[in-house]
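As a warm-up, study this chain.
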Amino acid sequence: MTVSHAPAPGAPPKWGLTLPLPGLTIDRHRFLVERLADLGYTDVWSAEGGGTDAFTPLATVAAWSPNLRIATGIVPVQTRGPAVLAQTAATLAQLAPGRLLLGIGASVPAHVTDINGIPFDEPYKRTRDVLRFVTRALRGEHIAGDFDTFSITGYRLPHPPQDPVKVILGALRPGMLRLGFREGDGAITNLLFPEDVPKILDAVGPQPPGKELVVKVFVCPTEDTDYAHRATRPFLAWILNREPYRKFHEWLGNGELLRECHERWADGDADGAQKALPDEVVDRLFISGSPEECREKILRYHRPGVTTIQLYVSLPPETFVSRAKVLDTLTRLGPAAA
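Now compare it with the structure written out below.
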């Protein structure tokens, strides 16, 4: 019997933690993974850009924990062939049967073209085509023929997963959000204010049972506001000036709030763009404060229809003085604190 890992309607969201934690290589996470379920966390998520790949951390988590759901959020659809994506997911599903959620998406040109030399062409169509291929492949279907962005001579997974693998899309605006729910198992969104969540839910529309809406929240648990701003402002200025995120916040109605930052970035003034990013934006897109204060802010993303809160936690250096300190911070930050 397949066990559903999606919350029941009206149930509290799951809580996921993105690994590896910045500043801690994946081989040093076993102590944490083995305790996460006791701390109330249900998921371990990974992501992929220019550092750690998305799948190796999840393989280690599957070996270290028999209970945690493992999920990618996200893997770019351009940097691996469709069959390689399906093979990798199917192999990982053998290590964690019924516990894998595959998040894929268009990513941004900086992660596709700038460091991999792959054209960032037709991101919506490519994402849609890979979604269709991977979902069919993971069901064990034979696939052959032309898609809009690639052609397949013929492929079938020799060992498709016995338990279904959910496939969700990284999605920011209505087209991708609706695609994720129409043809996939849901969507994951991120870098938005809590009051933006209803607009995401409106774009999604009615959510069939079993579909996922994941909200990724960035957290820097420290009461040293100056440190938090220094640590998070460069990333935010960079990511908010990627075209998909710029258009996302324009759609959300935040374009005027970010206008000066965008103008300075367009002029080639990266330092000026960072300085022009309002403190309000920094504080609310990469939340900081004591773990308890951060938890209160995280809870603002809990809305009916949100199935999972995925945390990206950037711990200040003083937290890494001991394993006990890391565990204590994540305990106070997470669901067990209730």
